[in-house]
């Protein structure tokens, strides 16, 4: 089989510009991207279908970020895509990894770890998360001491379902709901639950308005903009705890202000890694 050639944009930018760049890439119909980089800087390799006018995509991207982001470089080239070879390469490079001493996250081609109490098997997919991003890892760390104190959990924007699967393994018997606006993400989450023998999760494609009642723990690994827009809904549905992640350290104060409004929740703990941050909010006693 002849490998087909796809377009690839190699984009380098400051870490605080991550939300803007990734949002624009989805709006420009990227079929997927991978994030690289180190503290303070990020790189994204974004892929586009062969029939896309990549010069036009670059022009629209540069125009959209010109007033909002500086020091961004964009380079376009083409790559040969052979699905069999890609899978083989991914198998070679994507390996299991730990998140603190609790979690071992691994692909299907690697064995579980007896040294970690919680093993999570993740099937790599397109853009729904394999646990490698700092925001996911921070949320995992935040939930370790919280899950034993709750009876119900809702995962807002579940993506691959990794946070729900982790909560289910930390607290067997929990009442759990997970949802995402993207039906493909819901499909990926369902696969994650099956692979990890997680049962009983109410999983659906939809928005937060469909989430009825309060939950002891709300998991919200979202962008800062989405966290701000959903602040009222998140506050109203939090029974005890809210774990908010997916934003940079520079955005943490603004997220804190949005989620603490009305004095119903209080940020009590923060975790950070490579410029990313996560808040644990507790319900105020007087509310």
Describe the 3D structure.
The protein is α/β, with parallel strands linked by helices and 287 residues long. The N and C termini lie far apart (63 Å). The model has no long low-confidence stretch (mean pLDDT 88). It is built from 9 helices and 14 strands. Strand 13 and strand 14 form a beta hairpin. The chain has helices spanning 18-27, 54-65, 83-93, 134-143, 162-170, 183-195, 224-229, 231-237, 252-260; strands at 4-14, 32-38, 41-48, 73-81, 97-99, 103-106, 118-121, 152-156, 175-180, 202-205, 215-221, 238-248, 265-273, 276-283.
Characteristic terms for this protein:
7-stranded mixed β-sheet, alpha/beta, 33% strand, single chain, globular
* Radius of gyration, taken over Cα atoms and rounded to an integer in Å: 19 Å
The number of helical runs is 9
Question: Residue-averaged pLDDT, rounded?
Answer: 88
Number of strands: 14
With strands numbered from the N-terminus, the spatial order across the biggest sheet is 10-9-8-11-12-14-13
Low-pLDDT runs: none
Strand content: 25-35%
- Largest pleated sheet: 7 strands, mixed
How are the secondary structure elements laid out?
Blueprint: E1 4-14, H1 18-27, E2 32-38, E3 41-48, H2 54-65, E4 73-81, H3 83-93, E5 97-99, E6 103-106, E7 118-121, H4 134-143, E8 152-156, H5 162-170, E9 175-180, H6 183-195, E10 202-205, E11 215-221, H7 224-229, H8 231-237, E12 238-248, H9 252-260, E13 265-273, E14 276-283
Parallel strand pairs: 6-7, 8-9, 8-11, 9-10, 11-12
Antiparallel strand pairs: 1-3, 1-4, 2-3, 5-6, 12-14, 13-14
Helix pairs in contact: 4-5
């Amino acid at each position: 089989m002849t490998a087909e050639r796809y377009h690839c944009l190699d984009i380098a930018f400051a870490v605080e510009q991550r939300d803007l760049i990734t949002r624009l890439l989805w709006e420009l119909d990227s079929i997927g991207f991978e994030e690289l980089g180190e503290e303070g800087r990020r790189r994204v390799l974004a892929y586009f279908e062969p029939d896309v006018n990549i010069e036009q995509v670059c022009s629209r991207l540069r125009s959209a970020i010109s007033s909002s982001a500086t020091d961004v470089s964009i380079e376009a080239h083409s790559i040969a895509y052979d699905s069999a070879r890609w899978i083989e390469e991914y198998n070679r490079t994507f390996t299991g990894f730990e998140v603190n001493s609790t979690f071992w996250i691994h692909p299907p081609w690697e064995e579980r770890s007896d040294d970690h109490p919680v093993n999570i098997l993740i099937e790599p997919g397109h853009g729904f998360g394999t646990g490698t991003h700092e925001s996911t890892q921070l949320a995992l760390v935040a939930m370790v001491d919280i899950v034993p104190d709750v009876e119900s959990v809702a995962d807002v924007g579940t993506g691959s379902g990794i946070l729900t699967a982790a909560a289910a393994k930390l607290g067997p018997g929990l009442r759990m709901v997970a949802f995402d606006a993207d039906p493909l993400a819901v499909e990926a989450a369902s696969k994650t639950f099956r692979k990890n023998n997680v049962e009983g999760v109410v999983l659906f494609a939809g928005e937060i308005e469909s989430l009825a009642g309060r939950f002891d723990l709300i998991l919200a690994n979202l962008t800062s903009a989405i966290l701000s827009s959903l602040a009222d809904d998140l506050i109203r549905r939090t029974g005890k705890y809210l774990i908010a992640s997916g934003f940079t350290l520079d955005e943490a104060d603004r997220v804190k202000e949005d989620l603490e409004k009305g004095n119903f929740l209080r940020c009590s703990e923060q975790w950070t890694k490579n410029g990313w941050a996560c808040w644990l909010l507790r319900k105020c006693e007087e509310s």
